[in-house]
Amino acid sequence: MKIALINENSQAAKNAVIFGALKKVADAHGFEVVNYGMYAADDKAQLTYVQNGILAAVLLNSKAADFVVTGCGTGEGAMLALNSFPGVICGHVATPLDAYTFAQINDGNAISLPFALGFGWGGDLNLQYIFEKLFSEPFGGGYPRERAEPEQRNKKILDGVRAQAFRPLPDILKSLDRDLVRGALAGEHFKEYFFRDAKDENIKSLVTELLG
């Protein structure tokens, strides 16, 4: 699994702490973490939580990433932004229990964390525990286990509803403000990582066009 980490500007100073906790758990599972930043509060490329959604959608729909870890101060804004796009199912995760039940019941491909709430002493440990529970078992196994079948059925129904509710991502990106989209893709290492990992040639071509 390739996991992308995305931080917006208000919580960018925590990037190294978040990356460290995520990588420790990912390494134990043989997963790869790709850090798209922001890396520090004074980065040249400043991401808003809305741009987190754009970047996450580009990464997931192009298959440059299999899963996205992101967040903002409360985690709510980033969650809403990510869920505004096709191909993204993002859960709001504040505790290890949230992480486990989201993975097992909702079987999504992104989480948004509240990096400014309760992130004091031991915040790095809570992150590690969240990531441990998130990736502790294959997604979609159900919880409790006897509810697995209806939960999996509901997930398929949700996927079908979302397929009808969204336009294709390229159409959405073309209709958005060009500077907003370019800003979402302006990270220091975006081009390096994205063009190395993305598998959808149509989205790769569109990103090249958008970046000019």
Number of helices: 10
Strand numbers in spatial order across the main sheet: 2-1-3-5-4
Form type: globular
What is the beta-strand fraction? 5-15%
Order of helices and strands: EHEHEHEHEHHHHHH
Percent range of helical residues:
40-55%
**What is the CA–CA distance across the termini?**
30 Å
Low-confidence stretches: none
Molecular structure report:
This protein is an alpha/beta fold. It has 10 helices and 5 strands, in the order βαβαβαβαβαααααα. The chain has helices spanning 15-29, 49-61, 76-82, 96-106, 123-134, 148-165, 169-175, 178-184, 190-197, 201-211, and strands at residues 2-5, 32-35, 67-72, 90-92, 110-114. The protein has a 5-stranded parallel β-sheet, with helices on both faces. α2 (49-61) packs across α8 and α4 packs parallel to α5. The longest helix has 18 residues, at 148-165. It is globular. The two termini are 30 Å apart.
Short précis:
The chain is 51% helix and 10% strand. It is an alpha/beta fold and 212 residues long.
Topology:
Elements: E1 2-5, H1 15-29, E2 32-35, H2 49-61, E3 67-72, H3 76-82, E4 90-92, H4 96-106, E5 110-114, H5 123-134, H6 148-165, H7 169-175, H8 178-184, H9 190-197, H10 201-211
Parallel strand pairs: 1-2, 1-3, 3-5, 4-5
What are the salient characteristics of this protein?
212 residues; globular; 10 helices; five-stranded parallel β-sheet; alpha/beta
